[in-house]
Design goal:
With 121 residues, the chain is an all-beta fold. The protein is built from no helices and eleven strands. Strands 2, 4, 5, 6, 9, 10 and 11 form a seven-stranded mixed beta sheet that branches. The radius of gyration is 14 Å and the shape is elongated.
């Protein structure tokens, strides 16, 4: 199994910034057409997505503050979070398709273990 690893979480004050990373071998390769998606919290609230062609989308609650991007050679997707608010406090997860045999299967979700973001007021 290919591990999907998030990192970059931490504790910041209101208005602070963090950059989350999601990485796995082949994550942003041409074998993965599933896109990479960030979610947060126990209810897995959708935050942002990036498609293989680089198109991005955001939840209204983070639009204008968060930026998703990808570094293809590094097989990494980033979530730059600026202007953090206490209500952004959550465990953040990335999700893509299930990796198998060098390909990624979009009909089966594959989650990382999450990284905690805590914003104090």
């Amino acid at each position: 199994e290919v591990p999907l690893v998030e990192s970059g979480g931490g504790s910041v004050q209101n208005g602070g910034s963090l950059r989350l990373s999601c990485t796995a071998p082949g994550l942003t390769s041409t074998s993965n057409n599933c896109g990479v998606h960030w979610y947060r919290g126990e209810q897995r609230e959708w935050v942002s997505s990036i498609t293989p062609d680089g198109s991005t989308s955001y939840a209204d609650s983070v639009k204008g503050r968060f930026t998703i991007s990808q570094d293809t050679p590094a097989d990494t997707v980033y979530l730059q979070m600026n202007g953090l608010k206490p209500e952004d406090t959550a465990m953040y997860f990335c999700k893509t398709g299930f990796p198998y045999g060098g390909w990624w299967y979009c009909k089966q979700d594959y989650w990382g273990q999450g990284t905690q973001v805590t914003v104090s007021s």
